[in-house]
Amino acid sequence: MRDARGTGVMEERTDAEALKAEGLRLFEEGLYEEAAERFGQAQELFAAEGNLAEAAEMLNNLGVTYRMLHQWDQARTALEEAQRTFARLGDRSREAQTLGNLGGLLATKGDRLRAQEYLRRAADIFAELGDRQREGETLIALGIQMWKAGDRRGGLQTYREGLQILENPNPQQRFILRLLGWLFWLLRWPV
After folding, report:
1. Nearest to residue 95, comparing CAs of 69, 143, 59?
2. What is the dihedral angle through the alpha carbons of 56, 62, 64, 67, rounded to the nearest 10 degrees?
3. pLDDT tier at 9 (50, 70, 90 boundaries)?
4. Alpha-helix residue ranges (DSSP H) falling in the chain
5. ∠ at Cα 122 (119, 128), nearest 5°?
6. Cα–Cα distance between 98 and 142 in angstroms, integer?
């Protein structure tokens, strides 16, 4: 069997990879407790194999899953550990993803100012990496949190900036972008 690039024989799937795939499937089906169990098992196996990046990815998945289960402390612990590991490994993309997840968790808990800090850091890293789509998505999330925290103008401007950066905005996003352009013109805000 060849790998996706056609360059060689694909290795057999490890137990950790199988558990990861099963966890993702269970998560997609909304079976969060079962998904958390698989992600935890996969995390332990990846760590035992010395695959720290995948072990941290499983911690990130656990954090998101715990958030869905409203297990806030466990979610935060898992996400913070994943973020530290990605930072230590120099995996900026996954570090930013985890920072965004931490921002989402804090926003859910009502800690909007700290959520904004994490989302801003994530957006900045995505910008450094040239990942325009995820930068835009993160700025949209940041704009929403700014709005909810009472910074209406800053929130709208950041939301609009995120929409402008998106590589493939959907029809609703394109409509909102036009609407915001009209609003900014009406209010005489800088465009």
Report:
1. 59
2. -140
3. very low
4. 15-28, 32-49, 52-68, 72-89, 92-108, 112-129, 132-148, 152-165, 171-187
5. 140
6. 15
- Give 56-80 pLDDT, tens digit per residue: 999 999 999 999 999 999 999 999 9
Handedness of CA 44, 46, 52, 55 (dihedral sign): negative
Give the CA radius of gyration of the chain: 19
Check if the beta carbon of residue 66 is closer than 8 Å to that of residue 92: no
Q: Measured between alpha carbons, how far is 48 from 100 in angstroms, rounded to an integer?
A: 27
Cα(38)–Cα(22) distance, rounded to whole angstroms? 7
| Amino acid, res. 86 | F
Cβ 54 vs Cβ 15: under 8 Å = no
Sign of CA dihedral 65, 66, 69, 72: negative
* Two tokens, residue 98: 């985890």
Give the pair of three-digit tokens for residue 23.
């966890």
How much is the pTM? 0.86
| Beta bridge pairs of residue 9 | 2
